[in-house]
Structure prediction request, 425 residues.
Amino acid sequence: MSKGTQVICGKYVLINPYTYVKDACVEFDTKIKDVKPCENLRDTGESLVITHGLASTHTHLGLYPVRSTLGYGLRLDDWVNTFVWPWERFLLSNPDASYAAALVAIAEMLSSGITLFADMHFNEERVLNAVLRTGIKADLSVAVMSGGVFQDFNESLEANRELVNRVRKLGLPELVKARFGPCTPRLLNPSEFAEVVSTARKEGVGVHAHLAEVPEDEEYLRKKWGLSLREFVEYVGLGDGVDTLVAHAIWVQNLTELLAERGIKVSHAPRSNTLLRDGLAPITTLLDAGVNVSLGIDVAPTYSIIDDVAFMIGLHYNGGSRALNAEDALWMASVAGYRALGFGTGELVRGEPADIVVWELTDILPESRVSHVVTSLVMGDAIVRRVIINGREVFRDGSLTGIRSEELMLYRSKLASYLEAFLTS
Prediction:
């Protein structure tokens, strides 16, 4: 065994959500070297399941402190005006609060098996620092808009350009990437949106945008600009020579074929969509059309993707052209997310980055089928024991390995102080 090689073993190793090896070991350094049965696997009394890391393809880490406000029963625009805009203005004046929010949010994500996330927000250089500190993988972008918390469109576009350059200079594409984030059609005119997409194309990076989150999006485009949603996508160039990820895609019933043809990926945020009463996304229709659909936490009451997986299975069980099972849902939360963000196949196969999660399950039957193992994982009492990213352990038995618990508690306290200052300002 070569220097630096590590081995972890479990009762089940999931190559992907549909395929496993029983009583097996994963051999790895920075990449997966082999997955093979182990006849002499010692019975430790634990039911360990080993999977690939999970991915959230749409988050706003800066909004982590106000996540509980989704339970207030407000519609999207009312929620944004009441909570989001005021808090984001506070963040721009207090950028260190973004670092504290990102660090605490990332700790929760790692503890739930997330090894990769895509973030679109402000103060992204602070988020980048939190990424480097914790070792999680990330795809970052600035929410480019005309107005809002920025003075104008050019200011937000320049902030995104600086982020792309900063990330590029790091030279760590296996850990962190950046793209451009044209926020949403209602916060950019079509020409500005098209300029962001064109800039991304010239820079050789992707775009991350909100699209068709609420019916007001298309109503606005038709009334203000005389464009249908399809005409808007074609005009601004989404998916036209530029890697494109769109969040929500709820009101796209007439756009499914175009999304598939252009290879536009969709990030589905089941809990935030439901709590904000945005509508029910046609997920199974998109999947059947060949669209890559992954999962995003967005701004949810918890930053655990497993909570979104379990919620989504129930939400879509009777919708679309077919029901989603546990394997479909876990595929969206792992394989589809990694492929959408270009960080590998999202499977535990030879040559892939060693992004590994070790779970403890207490309710696995002695001769379980893969469907039972996956269902137990996403809807049972699974506990994350270890998280490994690029072969480096970043989480073990309830604690981050690179940050002392006392320091993390300090940042939680700082975040509470920032929130109190905001509420009393």
